[in-house]
Amino acid sequence: MENEASYKNRKVISIGTVSELTGLTERQIRYYEERKLISPERSDRGNRKYSFMDVERLIEIANKREEGVRTDEILQELKKKKKKEDTATRNKMIQGQLNARFNHSNRHPKK
């Protein structure tokens, strides 16, 4: 599962390919970047590079736009989702630290 997440997050796809995959124009994709809905990386030559997660997000954005949702509303929703994910990740890390601390100290070597 971790490998799946890592390949989906790698920024390796060109804007032209993203356009073909999503059906969006390059201009629309750049607009969504301007609105901070996606964040491509730049290659050494300055070309935008997107991930599979970016492609999925762009499709989600396009669907919401067709439903009449404004980009600022989408951005707020994305921020809330990110905050929720960050909180869940932090809670898992804390729980893992607590488990490691207390499970380790509660173990007694058998005689």
From TrEMBL:
GO MF assignments: DNA binding; DNA-binding transcription factor activity
Compositional bias segments (type: Basic and acidic residues): 80-89
Region: Disordered, residue numbers: 80-111
Keyword terms: DNA-binding, Repressor, Transcription, Transcription regulation
UniProt superkingdom: Bacteria
InterPro entries, per database record: DNA-bd_dom_put_sf (IPR009061), MerR-type_HTH_dom (IPR000551), MerR_fam (IPR047057)
Keyword ATP-binding: no
Amino acid composition bias (Polar residues), ranges on this chain: 90-103
Chain ranges of the HTH merR-type domain: 12-80
Protein name, entry field: MerR family transcriptional regulator
Naturally occurring in which organism (per UniProt): Bacillus mesophilum
